[in-house]
C-alpha cells in the first residue's frame, strides 16, 4: 500500500487540534498534534503519539511530564506556529501548572506525568497520568483532509 494513500485515508477522520508542551530546564517546547486520545477513567489516562524523529520525543523523556492543550477555533496561528508552518508574529503565551507549560486560553488543558511509553512502528506512544485540567467555553479548531476548519453543531429534529 502506498504511504500517500494511507495518509489520505487517515485524513478522512476529522479531529481537533492540540499542542503538546513540556519544559526542560527553563526551555518550553511545543508541537502541534492530532494523535491524542483518552485511555482510561480510573486511573485517568490519556495517550499521545510522537514521531520517533521528532525533537519532542527526547524532551518528554527528559521532563517526565507533558500537557495537551486543545485549541479553540481562534488559535489556528498557534497550531501553525508549532507545526512549523508559519512564525507567529507575537509570542506564544503560556501559563505554568506545576511547572508544566500550557497554551493560554486553550479550550482545555490536560496536564500529565508520563505513566508509560511504548515504541510502536515509527512513533512512540506516551501514556499520561492526568493530574490537572483546565476548561473554558468556546468552539474547537478542527482538522480534516489536511485543512483547518470550524465545528458546527447540527440541528437534530425528531
Automatic annotation (TrEMBL):
Q: What is the lineage of its organism?
A: Bacteria, Bacillati, Bacillota, Bacilli, Bacillales
Q: What is this protein called?
A: Flavin reductase (DIM6/NTAB) family NADH-FMN oxidoreductase RutF
Query: Known Pfam families for this protein?
Result: Flavin_Reduct
- Which controlled-vocabulary keywords does the entry list? Oxidoreductase
PANTHER family reported in the protein's UniProt record: FLAVIN REDUCTASE (PTHR30466), FMN REDUCTASE (NADH) RUTF (PTHR30466:SF1)
Q: Does the keyword Oxidoreductase apply?
A: yes
Coiled-coil blocks: none
Q: Which part of the chain is the Flavin reductase like domain?
A: 10-150
InterPro entries attached to this UniProt entry: Flavin_Rdtase-like_dom, NADH-dep_flavin_reductase, Split_barrel_FMN-bd
Amino acid at each position: 500500500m502506498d504511504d500517500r494513500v494511507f495518509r489520505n485515508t487517515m485524513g478522512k477522520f476529522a479531529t481537533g487540534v492540540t499542542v503538546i508542551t513540556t519544559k526542560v530546564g527553563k526551555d518550553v517546547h511545543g508541537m502541534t498534534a492530532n494523535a491524542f486520545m483518552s485511555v482510561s477513567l480510573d486511573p485517568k489516562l490519556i495517550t499521545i503519539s510522537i514521531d520517533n524523529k521528532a525533537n519532542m520525543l527526547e524532551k518528554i523523556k527528559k521532563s517526565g511530564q507533558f500537557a495537551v492543550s486543545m485549541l479553540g477555533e481562534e488559535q489556528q496561528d498557534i497550531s501553525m506556529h508549532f507545526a512549523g508552518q508559519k512564525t507567529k508574529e507575537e509570542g506564544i503565551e503560556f501559563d505554568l501548572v506545576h511547572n508544566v507549560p500550557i497554551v493560554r486560553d486553550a479550550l482545555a488543558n490536560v496536564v500529565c506525568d508520563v505513566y508509560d511509553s511504548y515504541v510502536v512502528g515509527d512513533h512512540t506512544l506516551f501514556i499520561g497520568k492526568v493530574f490537572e485540567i483546565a476548561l473554558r467555553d468556546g468552539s474547537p479548531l478542527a482538522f480534516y483532509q489536511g485543512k483547518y476548519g470550524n465545528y458546527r453543531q447540527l440541528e437534530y429534529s425528531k
